[in-house]
User: Which sequence fits this backbone?
């Protein structure tokens, strides 16, 4: 998606350790117009799949999934990382390893919001190691829902996330695929 | 807003301690169609205010603010509760007391995304004690941005949030105002 790639080159910043930051339009400040274009493009790419619900994970996936859901005409469910005292005890649970924090955390989705009749599109901001997506897939397996696909905004294809999804024959669409980040420069595939 | 009140009565649940849960359409599963109606209503109520940006707070405010932002044609910024290693060290910071967790937590907004020229509409899901909104107002004061208003989806007017905002002469609009919750029943104002 050219509009997105251009935006990454213009407004993305590379911090220490070749970490791409997109907090001026995706992760902290949100450019809702860009998200609308992203939503339309995701709908175009998954138009041949049956989708009854979009599943994402807090925090960064929520805005993307909510805007995109308008083009699919389905509700969004987000997996919770941070459980409050009001959390539903009757939930599916899985574990995700955070590479930035170097520790695992649990994610939960209330059993009320996923059923075996659901056909789910997973949407997330980044795909790198695939740990977050794996946690979501684990939850979908527990619920016996069908996985219709995985839509990613920015994929780092020098990590193992893509292989993991391809090995499961999951329909993966990434709107910007990064081959490498070196010397402060993003190189797209 | 009648549509919202009806939805609260139909799909909201009251858990122990007279806590209203709206996780089937607002806080965990998200009804994007309802959020669109909420966004239109917020725009109608703040149509006479100048607004350059919407400020909200993770997690539950993000979807609401993002969908609403389409009707205001402005970007969204969300205050972060959970700071990762990629967080911007150059941020405005404030503190919010969580009544559900009985402890304070810090919220941050990168200085890049708020300026003294901004005219900010704060949007959040609930207004009760007003602690979250107070933290956001503190951050706006630090940034010298103007507060154009506060838009709330569900207000519990038996707590002190409204008084706090009225004492500061802030334009407050709440789409559903709850007078009391007793014996498992929600009573609107």
Assistant:
């Amino acid at each position: 998606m050219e509009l997105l790639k251009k935006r990454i080159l213009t407004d993305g910043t590379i911090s220490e350790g070749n970490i791409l930051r997109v907090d001026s339009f995706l992760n902290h400040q949100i450019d809702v117009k860009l998200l609308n274009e992203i939503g339309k493009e995701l709908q175009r790419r998954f138009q041949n799949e049956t989708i009854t619900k979009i599943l994402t994970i807090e925090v960064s996936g929520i805005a993307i999934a909510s805007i995109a859901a308008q083009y699919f005409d389905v509700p969004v469910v987000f997996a919770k990382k941070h459980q409050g005292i009001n959390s539903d005890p009757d939930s599916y649970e899985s574990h995700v390893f955070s590479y930035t924090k170097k520790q695992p955390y649990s994610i939960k989705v209330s059993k009320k919001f996923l059923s075996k009749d659901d056909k789910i599109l997973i949407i997330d901001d980044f795909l790198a190691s695939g740990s977050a997506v794996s946690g979501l897939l684990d939850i979908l397996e527990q619920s016996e829902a069908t996985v219709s696909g995985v839509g990613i905004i920015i994929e780092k294809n020098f990590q193992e996330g893509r292989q993991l999804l391809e090995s499961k024959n999951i329909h993966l669409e990434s709107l910007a695929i990064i081959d490498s980040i070196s010397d402060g420069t993003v190189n797209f595939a």
User: Anything to note?
Assistant: The longest helix of chain B spans residues 32-45. The helical segments of chain B are 2-11, 32-45, 61-72, 131-143, 161-167.
